[in-house]
Design a protein that fits this description.
Helix content: 25-40%
CATH architecture of the largest domain: 2-Layer Sandwich
Strand order of the largest sheet: 3-2-1-4-5
Number of domains: 2
Order of helices and strands: EEEHEHEHEEEHEHHH
Low-confidence stretches: none
Number of helices: 7
Shape: globular
CATH class of the largest domain: Alpha Beta
Strand content: 25-35%
Largest sheet: 5 strands, mixed
Length: 234
């Protein structure tokens, strides 16, 4: 089964093609260019380099968030369009789960962390493959405190992964272990591997059923609610 997987939840744009769980090719860009500019050319170039066309793909996978609201929408909309146009199945993958997949072979506590702005991060915490903290939005110091407490109790190393990794650098974190640069950022191969396992488990879906997992409401909606709350209080 050939799977085309995408992740556009953060600054990094990444696309990969898998044969079941085997990586055939991957294309990753980590620049200031918007995903609307880079994603489709990336997909086209990747498929061309593998001598494939979109009809040769059996399923389309995408990271559905949390993350950048615009980035998530671009990735999901792209997969919805590809799945609809080809009549193939599609699979949504949690961005936090996909980041953990980057380090799933590591021994220790793994904390996927994404910069959610406004002093917060999207995050999770995994220990021995078990998801201790589900995909959440909280202050970075709160996540660090939870990770340190568990690391001290179990005498384990702590790994951070995701575009929020840089926010952790310079902090005195108990058990902190550097993550190799190559696997710090979003990786479409990880999205594809999880997607394959979900397909095998019968968890694929139709394009019309693919939903985004924002976790936190978009900023415009939060500001509107705050404005209405303030006006009501007058």
């Amino acid at each position: 089964m050939k799977i085309l997987a995408l992740d556009t939840t953060a600054k990094t744009a990444t696309a990969s093609v898998l044969e079941d769980e085997k990586l055939l090719g991957i294309y990753t860009v980590n620049t200031e260019n918007t995903h609307s500019e880079t994603l489709l050319p990336m997909i086209k170039s990747l498929l061309s380099s593998l001598s494939l066309d979109v009809q040769a793909i059996d399923a389309f996978a995408v990271s559905i968030g949390p993350g950048s609201f615009t980035g998530v929408r671009i990735g999901v909309a792209t997969v919805k369009g590809l799945a609809f146009g080809t009549g193939k199945k599609c699979i949504g993958v949690d961005a936090i789960d996909a980041l953990y997949e980057n380090l799933s072979g590591f021994s220790g506590i793994v904390c996927p962390v994404m910069n959610a702005r406004r002093g917060q991060v999207y995050c999770g915490l995994f220990d021995g493959g078990e998801k201790i903290i589900p995909s959440s939005c909280m202050e970075l110091d709160e996540l660090i405190s939870i990770a340190e407490e568990r690391a001290k109790k179990e005498n384990k190393k702590v790994f951070f992964v995701g575009d929020g990794y840089e926010l952790c650098l310079g902090k005195d974190i108990y058990g902190f272990e550097p993550t190799p640069e190559l696997i710090v950022y979003q990786n479409a191969y990880s999205v594809g591997k999880i997607a394959y396992r979900k397909i095998v488990a019968g968890e694929d879906t139709k394009d019309t059923e693919l939903e985004i997992n924002y976790i936190r409401k978009p900023q415009a909606e939060r500001e509107r609610e705050e404005k209405m709350k303030n006006e009501a209080a007058k």
